[in-house]
Amino acid sequence: MSIPPNHLELTKVEIEFPTPHGPFKALQDVNLTINKGEFVSLIGHSGCGKSTVLNIVAGLYQATAGGVLLDGKEVNAPGPERAVVFQNHSLLPWLTAYENVELAVKQVFGKSKTKAEMRDWIIHNLSLVHMEHAMHKRPDEISGGMKQRVGIARALAMEPTVLLMDEPFGALDALTRAHLQDSLMEIQKELNNTVIMITHDVDEAVLLSDRIVMMTNGPAATVGEILSIDLPRPRNRIQLADDAQYNHYRHEVLSFLYEKQRKPVDAEEAKETAVTEKKLAQELHSSSSEEKTKSAEAAA
Amino acid sequence: MSQMIATLGLGALFENPRASLAKLSKAVLLPLVGLLVFLFIWEVGAKSINTSLGVFPGPKAVYEQSVNLINEHRAERTREQEFYDRQEERNAKKLAKNPDAEVKIRPYTGAPTFFDQIGTSLITVMSGFILASLIAIPGGIMIGLNQQLYSALNPLIQLFKPISPLAWLPLVTMVVSAVYVSDDPMFAKSFITSLITVSLCSLWPTLLNTAVGVSSISKDLQNVSQVLRLSWMTHIIKIVLPSSIPMMFTGLRLSLGIAWMVLIAAEMLAQNPGLGKFVWDEFQNGSSQSLSRIMVAVLVIGLIGFLLDRCMLLLQRKVSWDKNAVTR
Ligand SMILES: Nc1ncnc2c1ncn2[C@@H]1O[C@H](COP(=O)(O)OP(=O)(O)OP(=O)(O)O)[C@@H](O)[C@H]1O
Ligand SMILES: [Mg+2]
What we know:
The structure holds two protein chains of two kinds. Chain A contains nine helices and ten strands. Chain A has one domain (8-83, 160-299): Rossmann fold, CATH 3.40.50.300. The longest helix of chain A is centred in the last third of the chain and has 33 residues, at 267-299. In chain A, helix 2 crosses helix 3 (115-128), helix 2 runs parallel beside helix 4 (144-157) and helix 8 (244-260) runs antiparallel to helix 9. Chain A has helices at residues 50-58, 97-109, 115-128, 144-157, 174-191, 202-208, 237-240, 244-260, 267-299, and strands at residues 8-19, 22-34, 39-43, 65-70, 73-74, 82-85, 162-166, 194-198, 211-215, 223-228. Chain B has two domains: 2-75, no CATH class; 115-320, Orthogonal Bundle (MetI-like fold). Chain B has twelve helices and two strands. In chain B, strands 1-2 form a two-stranded antiparallel ribbon. The two termini of chain B are 19 Å apart. The chains are: A alpha/beta, B mainly alpha. The A-B interface holds A 58-60, 77-80, 82-84, 86, 88, 90, 92-94, 103-104, 107-108, 138, 140 and B 220-221, 223-224, 226-230, 234, 238-239, 242-243, 321-322, 324. Residues 17, 19, 24, 26, 44, 46-52, 87, 218 of chain A line the site of adenosine-5'-triphosphate.
């Protein structure tokens, strides 16, 4: 491969947040090397520090020890070459969808593109996420999923070298989500940008990623396991549903999350996570039973 | 116009011809009932209060006086017109006799009427309010952006904020007399004194609310600004100003309310021309009509205060993106 390795490198990243009860060490000794054009998912329990890792790569947080290198240069401030899709969309409420994307496009391409080119580029990106019909609406006039899509369009429009996405499809319905996942795979194949995506959705992680980085529980969270997903691209969700290899990967991630990194059930968080945990536990169960039936079928 | 109607609370009547009865009663009937009850209590209560200037004026007396004041204003205007007409006539005659004669027109110096005083007060309050806003908005933005500056200035602001206009007035009057000396002043000294007093008292709410609005910009939006690497200027224009506009307007409306109250007090105390002086003059005058005339002034002061606030509300609706924040 002609692509040089060590495109993005996190070395011994550690971060401490000052709190009223003394410093809180959220991350410790996080090491990760990502190649150009690679799609990496971060997965882990709520509150383990996924967003924090992303924010450090974005330059919004400063690691208290260790650091991040992008193409050999140290990351210590945010910049448009590392676009972020924020967990809570973060659109400017007084601007329309179009104007929100425009602000980013003007900032990045203000000198290199003409007005008409910028206009076309904004509309192109909004139509990638199927938002062209509502592009002149303000955030309070569109649904949560639509806001998230505009946030994605804004990040894509910046043509970033590294695209950082914090649960980008969390607020979307299953159909839109599937659609956007497919679009994202296409866009990423075309532009070959590096993507780091945080997700809670195991299927999504396996479907989209080249590698899945599984994080241990905090405090002092770190990289637990890294799973390489060697599935051929383009990937088709329907075909993969019956793919043994795919289901094996799924099972790996689920067993990391719910067997190895099982959360110590403390009263407060139990309430919060009980529902999802139960659902996922069922899923884990069904996926292993699926595999069992499959192996039974194979045996027969 | 339609917006005006809506703001005055009559929107329900017009926007839907089949407006439900409940809506109608809420918009028109209930306020009307309130008004009638008020008038009744006023009428009954007024009769039982005897002052040294006679019985306290009821609604009828006040109505009569307001008609009176309008007539007086008209009469004064006619007199003024006649005064100028007479002068011109005389000058024309002079010029007819001797084309080289020097002619001049002397200005009319009649006493200001009630409506002249309203005009003076409105001009003064707007000037004072605009001056205060010109100081308070940029100041508030600076303080909001800079935590150190805020910490340094906050005690001072808290100290100056509660000062009554009556306390400032003597100081301002003395300082203006000492500093504002010119042979041909553009503005009257009394105007400058009122203006500065009004500004001093009314700038605090705008200053504080703007500062709070600016400093409470959500972390998320600041992150966006950072990721986009917006320049300082763009950051202020695209992020800081729009997101603090709702708070800013809350401050501006409070400020305008205070400005209006302070102005009336200042005019009364300092004998500066305006509605306050009208009230004071009537009080000193002590005729049998004085109380009714003061009552007219009091109601007009209230009405103008209300209209000023509505104007700010209309402006806020026009300028602010956050249409939900403007409900009251
Ligand atoms: N600015 C901060 N100050 C103090 N503590 C923080 C700060 N940001 C994050 N933390 C703490 O660091 C830990 C990791 O937070 P983070 O937001 O990265 O979690 P996460 O994995 O993204 O969770 P979720 O999946 O719910 O989004 C949490 O315990 C959180 O309380
Ligand atoms: Mg998070």
